[in-house]
Amino acid sequence: MAVRTAVAAPRVGRPGPLVTTVALLLVAATFVPLGYIVSTIYSTGLHEAAELVFRPRVGDLLRNTAGLVIVTVPICVVLGVGLAWVVERTSVPGAAWWGPVFAAPLAVPAFVNSYGWVSVFPTMHGLWAGVVISTMSYFPLVYLPAAATLRRLDPAVEESARALGSGPVAVFTRIVLPQLRLAILGGGLLISLHLLAEYGAFVMIRFDTFTTAIFEQYQSSFAGPAGSMLAGVLVLCCLVLLAAEAGARGKARYARIGSGAPRAAARVALGSSTIPVLLTLSAVVAGSIGVPLWTIVRWLRIGGARVWDVTEIGTALGQTIALAAMAALLTTLCAFPVAWIAVRSTSAFARIVEGANYITSSLPGIVIALAMVTVTIRWAPPLYQTVTMVVAAYVLLFLPRALVSVRAGLAQVPVGLEEVSRSLGQSGPVTFLRVTLRLTAPAAAAAAALVFVAVATELTATLLLAPSGTRTLAMRFWSLSGELDYAAAAPYALIMIVAAVPVTYLLFTQSRKAAGL
Q1: Mapping DSSP to helix (H, G, I), strand (E, B) and coil, where does residue 241 land?
Q2: How far apart are CA 449 and CA 444, in angstroms?
Q3: Which of 163, 340, 426, 474 could serve as a FRET partner for 455 with CA atoms 20 to 30 Å apart?
Q4: pTM for the full model?
Q5: Cβ neighbours of residue 21 under 8 Å, at least 6 residues apart?
Q6: Are 191 and 133 a contacting pair, CB within 8 Å?
């Protein structure tokens, strides 16, 4: 009688040498921008660096940038939370329709939004112009997580508070608002980082920030020490924001045991306030998506058939799709080893690998682009102004967008299925392709879509790194709008918005799925 011996399946929970090596290479790449800043300060010398940093111009830029963040973020928080409350907790007519509409502004790049507002109000400039445009562009970053959190809250807690004599205001401030803390802090951090990184929107309204000043320095002195010192200050601002958000978040726990009440919270009747609320919601929609869309349609009508240069538009569209597709594929592939380590390991190494990518991606695209330019000129001249470096910069910028989706998908893959595959004699790569990849395919597709749209609308890093002759949609729009040919720029703006609409809707549907709807 033949005796079969059981062979234990290899452990799949521990990252192998290949996964670890790829992850280490990615970590090393993510530290290139920070290393560039540190090496620049060292080579410049502390005395000269101090002179370049502690000067009136830097003070003005710091005042402008800080003022923009300090004013815009609270307005976005109030607007985002207020809209979420109205849509999710009141009897406002058309609540199901308002939800995706308030996510739609994410499909409009900030520089396109600025183009729309400047076309309507040509004299618009300065801090308050930046606040208006930024608020209309970024408030959904608070609205989406706040709305998702409101859907998940257990209504029994609020009902208990009302039964104990608390009024509506007390219930909101003492029960609901504390549970929105993570959504508010996370959304506020994202908005702050976007404000530090944005270039095109503020150039159009002639408002100087660190990013616009760095680009000007780069154009005048080709990555001279003055621009590098400004980049160093900007990096420090990013790190301060990250530390502030982490400190404000604290260590409080927001989870509950059990599923809570399996029902939606009772909606508050608006009554006589219905008309004013509807007018307010309509005003927000008009300012966030109405102005840019109306401007685009207006300029398309003025320009007529001449603005639809099929050859130029086709070239820009083709190059945009090619760059975005390459970046989306490579970024999603790079996200897998990082997500694997983050999900399958609880070691300090896993936290370092994951955290390094988030820290680097928080840096403005212009800082990453300057680092890539310096590195290629000094140590790899053949790579300067090549597609390889452009795609590498995109990976550093947008890896966390892919990582969030891939990690969520990988976390839902039962390890037991992989172990069964290995016990049946399948190798690690075959198990990954037949089991893991198939189960994470939807999450990977969502990750690739997010990166694709982000690359298709990216401007700053592309302007600095793109090879000669490159004409993406964003670059063509920027070139034509810079020449004040707003009519010719309109088709490119329209195509960018149309390309971003499906991914924006995907974000909205994912937020509803996360809330169990």
Answers
A1: helix
A2: 9
A3: 340
A4: 0.84
A5: none
A6: no
